[in-house]
Amino acid sequence: AAVSARNDNVTVVIAYAAVLAAAALFTVALRVCAPDRLRGLGIYDEPQRADLLPTATFR
Q1: Are the C-beta atoms of residues 11 and 1 closer than 8 Å to each other?
Q2: Cα separation of 29 and 18, whole Å?
Q3: What is the CA angle 36-32-46, rounded to 5?
Q4: DSSP structure string for 8-47
C-alpha cells in the first residue's frame, strides 16, 4: 500500500484501509457476540489418522 501511495495510486491505499477496517470491526463484533468462537482461534490441532480420508493412499 505504501508503494502504491508513492505512485499516486490512491485507490489501492483506500481499498487496503477499507479491508483493514472491516477486519478490525469483524474482530470486535466476534469479541462481543461470540467470544467463545474467537477464543478458539489459533489452538494447535494435530491431525490424527482418523481425520484423513478413508482411501488406500492415506492408510
Answers
A1: no
A2: 16
A3: 25
A4: T-HHHHHHHHHHHHHHHHHHHHHHHH-HHHHHTTT-----
Confidence at 25, pLDDT banded by 50, 70, 90: very high
Question: Does residue 19 register a pLDDT over 80?
Answer: yes
C-alpha cell at 1: 500500500
- HSE-CB at 59 with a 13 A cutoff on CA atoms is 5
Lookup: cell for 47: 491431525
- pTM > 0.70: yes or no: no
Euclidean distance between CA atoms 49 and 59, whole angstroms: 8
